[in-house]
């Protein structure tokens, strides 16, 4: 995932040629990553290089730092 700001299903890179496919891929990823607490790497995020993704109290997905 490029940055922690791209966690939202509908946030993608401007040059993504297949945004609907990216959304489906994210859904599949989150389906396993959340319950299994996968470490997610944000390849272009200068402040948060990796984190686990969780749902907050409102159901929004957020990056949870391991530090």
Describe this protein with a few key phrases.
single chain
Report on this structure.
The chain has one helix and three strands. By secondary structure, the chain is α+β, with helices and mostly antiparallel strands. It has a three-stranded antiparallel sheet with strand order 1-2-3. A hairpin with an 8-residue loop joins strand 1 (39-41) and strand 2. The longest helix has 18 residues, at 19-36. The radius of gyration is 12 Å and the shape is globular. The model has no long low-confidence stretch (mean pLDDT 93).
Strand content: 15-25%
- In whole angstroms, the N-to-C terminal distance is 19 Å
Number of helices, where a helix is a run of at least 4 consecutive DSSP H or I residues: 1
Q: Show unreliable segments.
A: none
Radius of gyration: 12 Å
- Helix content class: 25-40%
Largest sheet: 3 strands, antiparallel
* Total number of beta strands: 3
Q: How are strands sequenced across the largest beta sheet? A: 1-2-3
Structural class by helix and strand composition: alpha+beta
Oligomer: single chain
- Gross morphology is globular
Name the average pLDDT.
93
Order of helices and strands: HEEE
Q: Outline of this structure?
A:
This protein is of the alpha+beta class and 67 residues long.
Give the SSE layout.
Elements: H1 19-36, E1 39-41, E2 50-55, E3 61-64
Antiparallel strand pairs: 1-2, 2-3
